[in-house]
Amino acid sequence: MMSARAHRLGCTLLKCNFSYGTVRFQSASATPLARQLNAKIRVTGPLTVADYMKEVLVNPTAGYYPTKEAIGAKGDFVTSPEINQLFGEMIAVWILSEWQKVGAPKPMQLVEFGPGKGSLMSDILRVFKHFKIDGVSVHLVELSQKMRESQAKLLCSEATLGKNEEHQLQVVSGLTSTDYPISWHNHHSEVPRDAFSCIVAHEFFDALPVHKLRKTAEGWREILVDIDTESEDIKFRYILSREPTPISQLYKPKDCDTREDIEICPSAGALMQNLAQRFEEDGGFLLLADYGHDGDKTDTFRGFSNHQLHDPLLNPGTADLTADVDFGYLKRSVEGKALTFGPVTQEKFLNSLGIQVRLNILLQNDGLSAEQKAILKSGVEMMTDASKMGERFKFFSMFPNVLEEHLGKYPVLGFH
């Protein structure tokens, strides 16, 4: 039965099948964030899935990223840079290839969004140092102080602390062990302008908050997150708005879209547009690597805990929340404003950059033990095998429009 509160807000309870099964009104243990969300919803009403996702991931006191060790064997998921050094080496080769193709402009800013433990940047910088690339500064966009400390520990020979807006100490700058100046930023807009920027975003866009819409007889309606006020425990559940919301009116699909459920990430579209403008004014390019689709999937919103699928509404703040990147939406968001390439599969991208050749060279190194060689080999297989990560993960890139003729003559590596 619909609660009086849900009726007052013009919502209906929603029972729907998500990628891991049927949504249940599960009892969430009273995590600190569960209590916060419970109080917030009681006062202001149901949350959009985007607002719920944002709170769960980046709430400064009880969110997942600020308080948990997300990456690695002890975390909830493992990324390609953590599996094998060759992943980062191939990214570095791609960056240097495209940078040199446009004249190797300096100064060059090497920027990473959501750098995790810093493993990817560490491998990239090792390649840069090997080729004696100078005139480079490193910029990491990272909110979590805990992650900043891990990144500084891996990357820096020295680091400087400063205070954030809450007057808390956090890592703000330093010098890498490869002698490049490095700075940390809370938001991409803080990365300095007037310099050519090579931007890498690996498993970053999938964590940007999505709105969920469902097609009904009355039109598109937004899926919201509510509480069950009739339960003694804190429970979260999905409901469906009876009336159109701003998102359902602004971002409803075209008539030719036959999907019954869609996910929209306005923050991803806005970020792409901001980067397109930056590249047009200052020069640069973007390489994005993530799991996603080209505008054909429906429900991909899910949680991960201990490397297993996890109900997103259960124990908020204790599990990672994610949704597949809609590359079709990203392309449309910058149509006419920038050049986009992809998505292509990780298997195709890494193989076109010569990861197998690089692996064979390393396997001939007598200084490596049999165990080390086996680890390298299995890591490359994990990243490129179609039945593992090779097909699921995609690569996507963006360049300024001014390079259209140039890139027509010299195609973007990995995308042709």
SSE topology sketch:
Layout: H1 4-8, E1 11-13, E2 17-18, E3 21-22, H2 32-44, E4 47-48, H3 49-58, H4 64-67, H5 80-83, H6 85-101, E5 108-113, H7 119-130, E6 136-141, H8 145-155, E7 156-163, E8 169-176, E9 181-185, E10 196-202, E11 211-216, E12 219-227, E13 236-241, H9 246-250, E14 261-264, H10 266-282, E15 284-293, E16 302-305, E17 308-310, E18 320-322, E19 325-326, H11 327-333, E20 338-345, H12 346-352, H13 355-363, H14 370-384, H15 386-390, E21 393-400, H16 404-409
Parallel strand pairs: 5-6, 5-10, 6-9, 10-15, 15-19
Antiparallel strand pairs: 1-13, 2-3, 4-12, 7-8, 8-9, 11-12, 11-14, 12-13, 15-21, 16-17, 16-18, 20-21
Structure notes:
With 416 residues, the chain is α+β, with helices and mostly antiparallel strands. Helix content is 35%, strand content 27%. It has helices spanning 4-8, 32-44, 49-58, 64-67, 80-83, 85-101, 119-130, 145-155, 246-250, 266-282, 327-333, 346-352, 355-363, 370-384, 386-390, 404-409; strands at 11-13, 17-18, 21-22, 47-48, 108-113, 136-141, 156-163, 169-176, 181-185, 196-202, 211-216, 219-227, 236-241, 261-264, 284-293, 302-305, 308-310, 320-322, 325-326, 338-345, 393-400. The strands form 4 sheets. Strands 5, 6, 7, 8, 9, 10, 15, 19, 20 and 21 form a 10-stranded mixed sheet that branches. Strands 1, 4, 11, 12, 13 and 14 form a 6-stranded antiparallel sheet that branches. Strands 17-16-18 form a 3-stranded antiparallel sheet. A hairpin with an 8-residue loop joins strand 12 and strand 13 (236-241). Helix 10 crosses helix 11. The longest helix is centred in the N-terminal third of the chain and has 17 residues, at 85-101. The N and C termini lie far apart (55 Å). The model is unreliable at 1-10 and 15-28 (pLDDT under 50).
